[in-house]
Write a structure and sequence with these properties.
The complex is a heterodimer of chains A (113) and B (111). Chain A is mainly beta and 113 residues long. Helices cover 0% and strands 51% of the residues of chain A. In chain A, a hairpin with a 2-residue loop joins strand 5 and strand 6. By secondary structure, chain B is mainly beta. Classes of the chains: A mainly beta (113), B mainly beta (111).
Chain lengths: 113, 111
């Protein structure tokens, strides 16, 4: 039990739609990272938010965007969904300035048809 | 850029066998190294970590030693159990940002 929760657990969308995934970090963690894990692969870094501002981005297009809120929750938004966006999306929270271990939530499994 | 290479899976062992999952990395600096475990249908759980050369991380009978000279962080366990069946990911982190993961190794332990 990491104290990080995500919703929803599963989601089905069609190509071209938009989706919002939510994450609730451990209390006091000021940093959240999002990862995409395709089937049979390791997670790939999408971006990180620190104190409500984007603080690093992986090789993902601008249609992947995020928000971080003062109450330790965050969102991942994906516009214009493509079939290849089907994956498990994981968020991880960290206390920057502490041990900086990333604690992962259980993930949201997105299927794009 | 930074990268992590893991032993190809799947790996199948009998209960009480010795386990090694190889992991090597490429990084420009001195990263922290991690092993995460993913059980079916779940997210990632931190198994162990090491933050500098020659550190040994250990947890639940698993161990891994940070070897700078061979850029390796191999995972070992002396006697595996059926409950250890999962996918294991080696990862590195440089700085405060992203984790870079290997492709994962699926481990199945038969009774």
């Amino acid at each position: 039990e990491t104290g990080v929760t995500q919703s929803p657990t599963h989601l089905i969308k069609t190509r071209g739609q938009q989706v919002t995934l939510r994450c609730s970090s451990q209390s006091g963690h000021n940093t959240v990272s999002w990862y995409q894990q395709a089937l049979g692969q390791g997670p790939q870094f999408i971006f990180q938010y620190y104190r409500e501002e984007e603080n690093g981005r992986g090789n993902f297009p601008p249609r992947f965007s995020g928000l971080q809120f003062p109450n330790y929750s965050s969102e991942l938004n994906v516009n214009a969904l493509e079939l290849d966006d089907s994956a498990l999306y994981l968020c991880a929270s960290t206390l920057r300035g502490g041990q900086e271990t990333q604690y992962f939530g259980p993930g949201t499994r997105l299927l794009v048809l | 850029g930074d990268s992590v290479t893991q032993m190809e899976g799947p790996v199948t062992l009998s209960e009480e066998a010795f386990l090694t999952i190889n992991c090597t990395y490429t990084a420009t600096g001195y990263p922290s190294l991690f092993w995460y475990v993913q059980y079916p249908g779940e997210g990632l759980q931190l198994l162990l970590k090491a933050t500098k050369a020659d550190d040994k991380g250990s947890n639940k009978g698993f161990e891994a030693t940070y070897r700078k000279e061979t850029t390796s962080f191999h995972l070992e366990k002396g006697s595996v159990q059926v409950s250890d069946s999962a996918v294991y990911f080696c990862a590195l982190r440089e700085g405060a940002q992203k984790l870079v993961f290997g492709q994962g190794t699926r481990l199945t332990i038969n009774p």
